[in-house]
Design brief:
single chain; 14 helices; membrane
Length: 337
């Protein structure tokens, strides 16, 4: 026998050289034709269970917030709507009267006078407060000496209690011995004259809120890219042109937020008015709608009528906010890159 006819002793066999592979649906070592991964029915069932688990987990995460919204936002609205159709004096049991409270409030001239006083207050406060806050914010972002100290000073009235500020300003406005008349050398009835009462209350409100407004405008001015301002300067734009053509358009999101929150707080103003004029001013000249609501509920003990006023104020604020949102929606951008 020759050497070429001998079988190779140390050569690996063909089966040993072939690696073992397993593909989905291929027979396994035990001979099963299908595995759990390759079964379409099992795969669909697993996907459905994963989706259910994700949905349950999502609802579980938002459940605390939903409870807060339902308990502290939606439920009070429902209760006020229910009270607006009840006769209740805070002592006896509520009695169903249907729409009688609505008819009484809508036919009450003092309610419409309070609404006009509130609109006059908003017309005085909002433009002055917004423009003054924007001007102050523009100055404080220029890096002038003492800007940091002035930022603190402007915000101080906003962080103070409005009722305490009202009491202090009540003393300042006193016709005899008041600081303002002593300083001016006059004897003006700032809070007793119907012509000066509402402007005086509006002035105190503007003084206390202008720091809050300027704070947000400073934040809006700080995020405007400096490259845009520098490019406008290189092109020869004046500071006035830069302010009106670049800064104001890019401040529209901030302007929208400031106007919405300022108008809502102005319609709901109560504590400052109560601190300055506890009786609603001479001839009801400072009897804003929130003061009228307080007077109806806790002085006249007519909770049903007060609830009607609250619902009307709520609907009015929602409509005004929707109008503002419609105006600003297509006129502002949040992309400053």
């Amino acid at each position: 026998m020759t050497a070429a006819a001998k079988p190779p002793v140390d050569a690996p066999s063909a089966n040993a050289a072939t690696p073992r592979t397993s593909t989905p649906g291929a027979p396994g070592p035990t001979g099963n034709a299908k595995t759990s991964q390759g079964d379409p029915a099992n795969h669909a069932h697993s996907a459905k269970r994963a989706k259910v688990r994700a949905t349950v987990a999502g609802w579980g995460l938002v459940a605390p917030s939903l409870f807060g919204v339902a308990a502290f936002l939606l439920l009070p609205i429902v209760v006020v709507l229910w009270l607006s159709m009840q006769r209740w004096d805070l002592i006896s049991d509520p009695t169903w009267v249907g729409l009688q409270n609505w008819q009484r409030v809508l036919a009450d001239n003092s309610f419409w006078k309070s609404m006009l006083v509130t609109l006059g207050f908003v017309v005085i406060v909002i433009p002055v407060q917004t423009l003054l806050g924007l001007w102050i914010a523009n100055l404080l972002t220029k890096g002038l000496p003492g800007s940091a100290l002035m930022r603190v000073i402007y915000v101080l009235p906003w962080v103070c209690a409005p009722l305490a500020l009202g009491v202090v300003w009540n003393w300042i406005f006193q016709p005899t011995g008041g600081a303002l008349n002593e300083l001016l050398g006059t004897h003006v009835q700032w809070l007793s004259d119907p012509a000066f009462a509402l402007p005086s209350v509006a002035a105190v409100t503007i003084w206390s809120q202008v720091g809050y407004v300027s704070l947000f405008f400073m934040a809006g001015l700080a995020v405007i890219p400096s490259q845009v301002i520098e490019a406008a300067r290189i092109d020869g734009a004046s500071p006035t042109r830069i302010f009106w053509s670049i800064k104001i358009p890019l401040l529209r999101p901030t302007m929208f937020f400031v106007l919405v929150t300022s108008i809502i707080s102005s319609f709901q103003i109560f504590d400052t008015v109560y601190g300055l004029t506890p009786q609603g001013g001479p001839g009801g000249s400072t009897s804003v709608i929130a003061f009228k609501l307080y007077q109806t509920a806790f002085r006249n003990y007519d909770v049903g009528a007060a609830s009607v006023i609250a619902v009307i104020l709520f609907v009015l604020l929602v409509l005004i906010t929707l109008v503002q949102h419609t105006y600003f929606r297509k006129r502002m951008t949040y992309d400053l890159s």
